[in-house]
Design a protein that fits this description.
single chain; alpha/beta; Cobalt-precorrin-4 Transmethylase, domain 1; Rossmann fold; 3 domains; 4-stranded parallel sheet; 12 strands; about 40% helix
């Protein structure tokens, strides 16, 4: 960049979002894989990416994890782990049929949504799931109930055109990694049409997703550019990019690590925002900061946000 050629790195203010990065569900899922390898030996088979981050996945592969698309890729007698996003009921049923030893790394907050779906179905309600088609968490939630028991709603337009068979017996649940504001708008549209629709006692969107979006709203209005560290298939990371733009950032981009930065993006940028999705390790944040220090005279301001002290226990089989 021009500043390097002149030998005078120009100043850059970095607004560092807090909280950011790993949440308790991600930490638990990774720990389950690590403990399983230590206890049962490699290889341990993991159905789908344990969390949506290639850096994490590749490190676990080096330790002895083998990531598979479906259970039929795991040999008889294998130890199998289900990802943090949750799985349809058919998956553990198939594991039991094959007599595979399996551990469930589903985030407890996703399991809570599954339990809500079961409760509403048991009460005779048709379930509306607010989420994104094709996301593993959505596929897992849809697979908790019989076909046709859940309708997927992705947009306000979907909410406005949805025609249930029994409008008086409805309930809604949501994917845990959605935009808080967008979800509120969809829920509001459903409540306007179906005032009696039942909902969760508390919002399904997880505490970590909510906290990271609130932190983003604090830094985005001041930022010329916001970078979000996360994978393209990480819903909560993609949502952070969207939240940044809606909250006032002039531009925002998703990167997986420092090598993905196009340094031309920073031409004319005086204030840069930085956050990381819930499946991105802090090591990748440190990597980006180091790359910035090589090119700029960096001044870092870290925001003060919600304190996170949530922890989730690993399965009992691994606790000893």
């Amino acid at each position: 960049m021009e500043s390097i050629a002149e030998g005078k790195p120009r100043p850059l203010t970095l607004l560092l979002a807090s909280p950011r990065g790993f949440c308790a569900g991600v930490e638990r899922a990774i720990r389950i894989v690590e403990l399983s390898i230590a206890k049962y030996g490699a290889p341990v088979y993991v159905r789908h990416e344990i969390v949506h981050n290639r850096f994490v996945v590749e490190r676990l592969e080096r330790l002895g994890a083998v990531f598979i698309d479906e259970l039929d890729m795991a040999p008889d007698g294998a130890c199998v782990i289900f990802s943090a996003h949750g799985v349809p009921k058919s998956v553990p049923a198939e594991a039991r049929r094959r007599k595979l030893f399996y551990l469930n790394a589903t985030c407890p907050l996703v399991s809570k949504v599954h339990a809500e779906a079961e409760r509403h179905f048991g009460a005779g309600r048709h379930v509306v799931l607010i989420g994104h088609e094709g996301h593993p968490e959505v596929e897992g939630t849809l697979g908790q109930l019989p076909d046709g028991a859940i309708t997927l709603i992705q947009t306000i337009a979907d909410a406005q055109t949805f025609q249930p068979a029994d409008p008086a017996n409805l309930a809604f649940i949501t994917q845990t990694t959605l935009s808080v504001d967008d979800t509120h708008e969809i829920v509001a549209a459903l409540r306007r049409r179906f005032p009696e629709i039942a909902g969760p006692h508390r919002e399904d969107i997880c505490y970590a997703t909510t906290n990271r979006q609130e932190a983003m709203k604090r830094i985005a209005p001041r930022a010329d550019l916001v970078l979000v560290i996360g994978a393209p298939n990480s819903s909560n990371s993609v949502r952070l990019v969207e939240v940044a733009l809606k909250a006032g950032a002039r531009n925002s981009a998703l990167i997986q690590r420092a090598a993905d930065i196009d340094w031309s993006w920073l031409e004319g940028v005086e204030t840069l925002g930085l956050s990381a999705g819930a499946s991105a390790p802090e090591l990748l944040v440190d990597e980006v900061i180091a790359a910035l220090r090589e090119r700029f005279t960096l001044s870092i301001e870290e925001t003060t946000g919600a304190s996170e002290d949530v922890t989730f226990n690993v399965p009992r089989a691994l606790a000893s």
